[in-house]
């Protein structure tokens, strides 16, 4: 069972994530969609949310963001300490080939 303090943290994380997502999309839509892993439809929805709508959505007990890296190789590349630049480039290539998820 999730206690009240964890629910408050989820709500805060949700609101922070939505605000960041909206800023990213408004600054550079294509790059924002890529970094968020979302498609056109979801980008349009997030981009046009009002502050009141974001607060209402963020108030749910469901975490809006998720860990996108479900590939062990990507985690190994990201967390590795040797040849960091090369590994970062390889991780970016692996992530770029993943299709945006529909939310």
Question: Would you write up a description of this structure?
Answer:
This protein is an all-alpha fold and 103 residues long. It folds into two domains: 1-66, Flagellar transcriptional activator fold; 67-98, no CATH class. It is 67% helix and 0% strand. The chain has helices spanning 4-27, 29-36, 40-47, 51-58, 72-79, 84-96. The radius of gyration is 16 Å and the shape is flat.
Which helices and strands, and how do they pair?
Blueprint: H1 4-27, H2 29-36, H3 40-47, H4 51-58, H5 72-79, H6 84-96
Helix pairs in contact: 1-2, 1-4, 5-6
Report, as a whole number of angstroms, the end-to-end distance: 25 Å
Strand percentage: under 5%
Q: Give the number of helices.
A: 6
Named CATH architecture of the largest domain? Orthogonal Bundle
- Which blocks of ≥5 consecutive residues have pLDDT under 50? none
State the shape: flat
CATH-defined topology of the largest domain: Flagellar transcriptional activator fold
Essential attributes:
67% helix, mainly alpha, 6 helices, 103 residues
Summarize the structure.
With 103 residues, the protein is mainly alpha-helical. The protein has helices at residues 4-27, 29-36, 40-47, 51-58, 72-79, 84-96.
């Amino acid at each position: 069972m999730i206690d009240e303090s964890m629910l408050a943290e989820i709500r805060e994380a949700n609101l922070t994530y939505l605000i960041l997502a909206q800023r990213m999309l408004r600054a550079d839509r294509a790059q924002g969609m890529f970094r968020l892993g979302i498609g056109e439809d979801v980008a349009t929805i997030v981009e046009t949310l009002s502050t009141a709508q974001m607060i209402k959505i963020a108030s749910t007990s469901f975490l809006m963001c998720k860990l996108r890296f479900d590939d062990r190789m990507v985690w190994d590349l990201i967390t590795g300490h040797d040849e960091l630049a090369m590994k970062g480039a390889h991780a970016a290539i692996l992530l770029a080939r993943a299709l945006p998820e529909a939310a």
